[in-house]
């Protein structure tokens, strides 16, 4: 029983990272209708920026929030410079651009910081929390930061004018334009928020997986799985989906001998396939109705 509880708690802690990535994926999907295949690499690059600041002697939390601000601005710039001209381009053009962005960011990170594995500090430490073997201080810190982030986003989208405008632009851009909302800049804002959220995920997971240009590859797959499971049209569903994926893959890797630790990534891929086959809209996604 103790092992089961330990794996559930560990799954929730890693699921908090998947939830952040899933939320970032969904925010861009809702804004432009496409999946950002470079989301993980953008988070990785932001984490390298934080590592560089810390290496230069900047205190951790100052580097943490400064990286979030830099990532937000970077996301807005990427949308304005690269994807704004592709507004009316075919879907394939967006896919090619995402793949190009993925490759460029990975190569740039390797060129600037090389491809060697680096350690990333944790502000919470790695000791067991309160002496318990069930959860470490870093795992508890990951969950706390993620929950605070999700709470802040909830209040932003629910009670601020900009947040409400962003929701309106995503739900019905035509009506949003009619009431004076600058939908184009709302899309850029969504990109900035998604990039900042990805940066948080990268900085929280880097002490666990270590820092290198390909660190987010597997995590992005889990994030996609969480987004698909919860629903690509539902930010809240994507968050819950991320937590569920974390728990499911942890329990499966522990209690199903055939899977073990080597095939845990396969769990995420199976979840994506099953959801797309059985319920394409996800658990909490909205059905899309088109008049013909």
UniProtKB/TrEMBL annotation:
Domain of life: Bacteria
Family that this chain belongs to: Belongs to the binding-protein-dependent transport system permease family. LivHM subfamily.
Coiled-coil regions, chain positions: none
Transmembrane segments: 6-30, 60-83, 95-113, 133-157, 185-209, 215-232, 239-259, 265-285
Principal location: membrane
Any matching Pfam family: BPD_transp_2
Compartment annotation: Cell membrane
GO cellular component, one term: plasma membrane
GO biological process: amino acid transport
Family matches, as PANTHER family: ABC TRANSPORTER PERMEASE PROTEIN, BRANCHED-CHAIN AMINO ACID TRANSPORT SYSTEM PERMEASE PROTEIN LIVH
The protein's name: Branched-chain amino acid transport system permease protein
Molecular function GO terms recorded: transmembrane transporter activity
Keyword Cytoplasm: no
Topology class, membrane: Multi-pass membrane protein
Keywords, alphabetical: Amino-acid transport, Cell membrane, Membrane, Transmembrane, Transmembrane helix, Transport
């Amino acid at each position: 029983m103790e092992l089961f509880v330990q794996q559930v708690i560990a799954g929730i802690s890693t699921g908090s990272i998947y939830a952040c990535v899933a939320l970032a994926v969904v925010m861009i999907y809702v804004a432009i209708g496409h999946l950002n295949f470079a989301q993980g690499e953008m988070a990785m690059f932001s984490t390298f920026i934080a590592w560089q600041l810390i290496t230069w002697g900047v205190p951790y939390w100052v580097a943490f929030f400064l990286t979030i601000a830099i990532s937000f601005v970077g996301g807005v710039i990427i949308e304005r410079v690269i994807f704004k001209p592709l507004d009316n381009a075919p879907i394939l053009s967006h896919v090619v651009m995402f793949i190009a962005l993925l490759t460029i960011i990975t190569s740039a990170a390797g060129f600037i910081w090389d491809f060697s594995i680096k350690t990333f500090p944790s502000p919470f430490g790695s000791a067991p929390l309160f002496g318990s073997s069930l959860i470490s201080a870093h795992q508890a810190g990951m969950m706390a930061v993620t929950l605070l982030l999700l709470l802040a986003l909830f209040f932003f989208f629910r009670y601020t004018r900009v947040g409400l405008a962003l929701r309106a632009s995503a739900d019905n851009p035509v009506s949003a334009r009619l009431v004076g909302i600058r939908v184009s800049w709302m899309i850029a804002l969504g990109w900035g928020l998604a990039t900042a959220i990805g940066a948080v995920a990268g900085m929280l997971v880097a002490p666990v997986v270590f820092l290198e240009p390909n660190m987010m590859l597997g995590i992005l797959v889990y994030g996609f799985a969480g987004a698909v499971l919860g629903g690509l049209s539902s930010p809240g569903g994507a968050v819950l989906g991320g937590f569920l994926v974390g728990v499911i893959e942890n329990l499966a890797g522990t209690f199903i001998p055939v899977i073990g630790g080597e095939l845990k990534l396969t769990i995420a891929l199976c979840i994506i396939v099953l959801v797309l086959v059985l319920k394409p809209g996800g658990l909490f996604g909205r059905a899309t109705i088109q008049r013909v």
